Amino acid sequence: MATGRRVILTRPASDSQTWIQGLQAAGYEVHDWPLIEIAPATNQALIHQALADWQQYQAVMFVSRNAVTHAFLSGKPAAGWGDTRCWATGPGTHQALLQAGVPAYLIDAPAADATQFDTEALWQVVHAKLVNDKPVLILRGSEADQLETSAQGVGRDWLMQQLLHTGVTVHTLAVYVRACPVWDPQQLARASRATSDGSVWVFSSSQAVEHLLKLLPGQDWSRAEVVATHERIGRAA
């Protein structure tokens, strides 16, 4: 992208600050239009139980920074961190774990200079350390009207399959809710114009793409310019 261009971020608001700062420092005009709204899950009793059972897991995977934030809203594991590993796919989630008090030596994540931050890169870091006699817990988000669904997202599904193929039991738990935002007519009009005015949309989630299509049904996207952070998201776009 040429410096000075208008960039539209679609990440949840709680995830976007580092991106905004970096893009502005590089000379871009940044507009923060979150396409995923985040709220605490309603199953707080299950989250409390997961914290109580923390040390029974060989590893807990956090799918995002929001998973870290909402897992520990009401406290930390009462019995301590133990030797349970904490998995993160990217630097934002890694930093959130450190800020939550997880010791650095318990965190597994792709290297800071990795070419991709996703479940495949994480798998290369963790698969050799797995044992079969302790489960892995995946802490994730859920659609607002589907709190008890299985893990969502191709990346998480792929990781679950790898774990199951190696004989590891997998538990999943929704710790936050992802919902489509409500945009007023002015925001909808601005978004419609941004499909053809040279703005560059940045998508880091396939769900953000889905929500945008719900907000602008029938919109002509043939002139839109898009950057996707993963090939799966690019296919969705």
Strand order of the largest sheet: 3-8-7-4-5-6
Order of helices and strands: EHEEHEHEHEHEHEHEHEH
Query: What composes the largest sheet?
Result: 6 strands, mixed
Indicate the proportion of strand residues.
15-25%
Extended strand count: 10
How many H/I helices?
9
- What's the alpha carbon Rg, rounded to whole Å? 19 Å
Query: What is the general shape?
Result: elongated
Task: Write up this protein.
- This protein is α/β, with parallel strands linked by helices and 237 residues long.
- Helices cover 33% and strands 20% of the residues.
- The chain is built from nine helices and ten strands.
- It has helices at residues 17-25, 44-52, 65-71, 91-99, 119-126, 154-165, 185-193, 206-215, 231-236, and strands at residues 6-9, 29-32, 37-40, 59-62, 85-88, 107-108, 136-143, 170-179, 200-203, 225-228.
- A six-stranded mixed beta sheet has the order 3-8-7-4-5-6, with helices on both faces. It has a four-stranded parallel beta sheet with strand order 2-1-9-10, with helices on both faces.
- α1 (17-25) links the parallel β1 (6-9) and β2.
- α3 (65-71) runs parallel beside α4.
- The longest helix has 12 residues, at 154-165.
- It is elongated.
